[in-house]
Design the sequence.
């Protein structure tokens, strides 16, 4: 090999090495540029994600504000008024623009547009279901099926919101109007004996239906199914609990109101009366003469506190195990009332009094009975007891109503108002035994039963509201009609009085 050829090979090797180095440097440069680009993109993406999270949190704070407003139970009309124009809510360095509108009946749509500090925007839309318990007929316990195993017998009508836990079947000519109708299970038979005679809604006035299971969708089964719209999302509702603490509080309230010299409750004073002559709050003074010549009789087995019926007031009460019964109707009068000749002028009466000769019951605030209560026709021979006042009868036992029980002084015996509404609370069950042939309504008021409410005769009607785990209709021809005004003057002691049903439905984010 010559020297020239050796030098050439060395130069060739150096050239190859140089090209290799340049290639490696190029690759490293590309990798560095790529890594920088990826890092920059990652930083940008992280910053964007952080801004989106901030905007979402701001928008969610706006939704929380709507939820809090609806939870105050001031009434949906007042809440909606807050959102006549979009509300702007500051959240840290961001802000949310919030609107609320009524979609359909009990459904409301809240829209919150959240803007982060850098201008990033996130929008959340949430559907709310908002109802007042005492606008409805509710057959919904924790575990029990309702309406006697899901079967309605005979000709029946329900006018107003009706909630059923379980299946709904009708074996007669029934109707469900005004709505909405809530059924957590299936809507089955719409009629009896092979005929489809039950109507849900009407052709002229269809109703909203919320049903968790199946419902009539094909002809002829659906020919009487008139739904404005059907939702398979059924709000979860259970009857408000009635426990030992509730009963103890009701007893304490009845004692307090027995000697405060006012008509009604401390929260809802409707006037003055004379329960203690000295004004000292000594409940033992109640039997004293209010005109100097007459001693007021208390209700049978009333304690020192005339609004507490209990044979032994020193023993603690046990939920559902009361032993002192009270019968109202054809068993004598008690208490004092306006113009009865013993000192009260028009518009004044005791918080708990009964005129058997006229068949008028005066009940204000809270009256507690540690046992069963029965209403019978009064001594005057009429099949009706008329009630006056705004009050609740809390019964630590069963309630049996064997007569009509309706407001005093109204044209059709159904016009409840702030001074004419009666609530009945039973720690056990309520039975309606009155004969519906004697008037348009057997009962007007708010009824709450811890176990069940039972219609024991045919042709029975109720205007107002019912809340119970079970509503049993073993006989034909009953009628229920809700009163949308009832929650505005509901007696103070009713369970769930300040607990609206507020359920969050579907939501979306954009």
Sequence:
């Amino acid at each position: 090999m010559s020297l020239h050829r050796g030098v050439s090979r060395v130069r060739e090797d150096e050239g190859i090495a140089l090209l290799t180095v340049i290639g490696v440097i190029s690759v490293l440069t590309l990798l560095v540029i790529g890594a920088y680009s990826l890092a920059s993109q990652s930083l940008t993406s992280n910053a964007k994600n952080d801004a989106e999270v901030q905007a979402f949190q701001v928008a969610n704070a706006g939704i929380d504000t709507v939820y809090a407003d609806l939870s105050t139970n001031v009434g949906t009309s007042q809440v909606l008024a807050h959102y006549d124009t979009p509300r702007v809510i500051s959240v840290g360095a961001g802000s949310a623009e919030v609107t609320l509108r009524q979609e359909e009946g009990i459904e409301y749509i809240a829209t919150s547009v959240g803007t982060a500090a850098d201008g990033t925007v996130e929008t959340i839309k949430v559907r709310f279901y908002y109802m007042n318990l005492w606008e409805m007929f509710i057959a919904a316990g924790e575990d029990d099926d309702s309406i006697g195993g899901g079967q309605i017998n005979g000709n029946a009508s329900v006018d107003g919101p009706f909630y059923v836990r379980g299946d709904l079947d009708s074996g007669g000519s029934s109707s469900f109007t005004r709505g909405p109708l809530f059924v957590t299970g299936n809507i089955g038979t719409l009629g009896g004996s092979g005929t489809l005679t039950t109507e849900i809604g009407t052709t002229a006035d269809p109703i909203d239906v919320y049903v968790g299971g199946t419902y009539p969708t094909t002809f002829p089964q659906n020919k009487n199914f008139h739904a404005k719209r059907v939702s398979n999302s059924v709000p979860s509702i259970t009857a408000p609990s009635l426990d030992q603490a509730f009963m103890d509080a009701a007893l304490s309230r009845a004692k307090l109101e027995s000697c405060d010299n006012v008509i009604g409750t401390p929260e809802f004073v409707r006037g003055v009366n004379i329960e203690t002559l000295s004004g000292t709050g000594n409940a033992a003074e109640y039997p004293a003469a209010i005109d100097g010549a007459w001693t007021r009789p208390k209700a049978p087995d009333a304690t020192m506190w005339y609004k507490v019926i209990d044979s032994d007031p020193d023993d603690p009460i046990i939920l559902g195990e009361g032993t002192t019964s009270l019968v109202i109707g054809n068993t004598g009068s008690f208490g004092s009332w306006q113009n009865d000749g013993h000192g009260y002028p028009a518009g004044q009466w005791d918080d708990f009094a009964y005129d058997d000769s006229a068949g008028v019951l005066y009940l204000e605030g809270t009256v507690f009975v540690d046992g069963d209560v029965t209403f019978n026709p009064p001594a005057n021979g009429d099949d009706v007891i008329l009630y006056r006042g705004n009050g609740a009868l809390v019964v630590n036992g069963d309630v049996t109503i064997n007569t009509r029980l309706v407001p005093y002084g109204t044209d059709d015996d159904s016009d409840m108002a702030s001074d004419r509404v009666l609530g009945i609370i039973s720690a056990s069950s309520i039975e309606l035994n009155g004969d519906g042939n004697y008037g348009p309504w057997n009962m007007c008021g708010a009824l709450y039963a811890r176990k069940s409410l039972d219609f024991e005769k045919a042709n029975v009607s109720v205007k107002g509201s019912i809340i119970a785990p079970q509503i049993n209709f073993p006989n034909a021809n009953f009628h229920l009609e809700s009163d949308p005004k009832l929650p505005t003057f509901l007696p103070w002691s009713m369970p769930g009085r300040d607990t609206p049903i507020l359920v969050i439905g579907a939501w979306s984010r954009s």
User: Anything to note?
Assistant: Confidence is low (pLDDT under 50) at residues 143-150. The chain is about 20% helix and 35% strand. The first helix runs from residue 3 to 71.
